[in-house]
Amino acid sequence: MRGLKMLLSASAVATTATPALAQDIMFKPIIEARLRYETVDQDGPLPLTSSRDADAVTMRMRAGGELSSGPFSFLAEAEGTLAIDESYNSGVNGKALYPIVPDPETVEVNRVQLQYKTKPLIVTVGRQRINLDDQRFVGSVAWRQNEQTFDAVRAEYMGVKNLKVDLTYAISARTIWGIDGGKFGAANRPTHIDGDNIFANISYKSKLGTLTGFAYLVDQDEPVAALLRNSSQTYGFRFAGAAPLAKKVKLSYLASYARQSDYAKNPVDYKADFVTAELGLEVASFKLTGGYELLGSDGDATGIAGGFAFQTPFATLHKFNGWADKFLTTPGTGIQNYYGGIAYTVPKLGKMGPLVASFIYHRFSSDRLSIHYGDEYNAQVTLKIDKHLSALVKYADYDRKGIASFAGDADTRKFWAQIDYAL
């Protein structure tokens, strides 16, 4: 009888322990979908026999999940893009008579990572998404259907109050060009860019804002236009913050400076500066923004006729220098971007919201030789439909001034309509 009681007691312990163990392992599904229409109307430099506009209807799906137990987690996510209407040059599909819409058909492992996470320390190993600061130097290029991820080891330390140390060593960038990267002569659009890259950020948060010092050492194996010119070392700082001026009135500010030079295998000897300054004023539902950005040029760069300029190959470039994407590669004479914008937010629209409407104007000129490249007008409306759905319409109009000053310098108009779903 005593033995039977002991057996029943052991059975009860096992029964209560099993649910506790099951509760300790959590699963979070990842399901995201995006349907987008993009059209591009671009004047030369297309072939003279072609007057085609690009029309792209693409669907992007991401699916996966994250298993977590205590401080440890494992995440795996697949990504695929389908071209429903492929009347466009994806950059790797060989349809050179159309303007480029860089959303190629692809299927890939987007992320697969192991992570250790506690309050003072996060360590992530594997293929991962990395967005640093405002993504001006390192980002995931989330605007494109196939995002950029990195094969990397990343450590984030927050063990000292108001201080964060963020260090990454990346051996490969998985680009937006997908599984067909490099095809049809697109050698400068590879599936992945291998190398030895170090991203280092140290930031301190105060009442006035966050001061960040950074160092980005980019050592790429793959050449660009027969030269390893994207291998570079960049050192700089960034300060960003906001301060209330009155009820429903807030001032925001941003200032950043960096110095870039050749590094590792880059045969081009150059030095160039980066400067940005921005002010924003929020008054109730309105926000006004004005700023200036410089990506400088070295006219004495060795081996490069016309000079060589500051480059940010791992940035989320669509966020900066206009949505028409005319300056994804900085021209040899550099860029000066003067810009101003206004945005209006409607917090609620029935059961939907917020709705945000914005307009931005850019004036682009060179750092050297006093070239006025052109002007650009950007407009966008976004609407949060419910907790899973959001919608967007967007327009960009780049108006070239004078003769073409760099590859792709042409009058360009783009329009997007998009629906996003996230679980």
TrEMBL record:
Q: Which Pfam families match?
A: Alginate_exp
- Which part of the chain is the Alginate export domain? 50-167
Instruction: Using the record, list the residue span of the signal peptide; answer none if the entry has no such feature.
Output: 1-22
Keywords, A to Z, come to:
Lipoprotein, Signal
Give the transmembrane ranges. Answer: none
> Looking at the record's lineage, which domain of life comes first?
Bacteria
- Name-wise, this protein is Lipoprotein
Q: Which species is this record about?
A: Sphingobium herbicidovorans (strain ATCC 700291 / DSM 11019 / CCUG 56400 / KCTC 2939 / LMG 18315 / NBRC 16415 / MH) (Sphingomonas herbicidovorans)
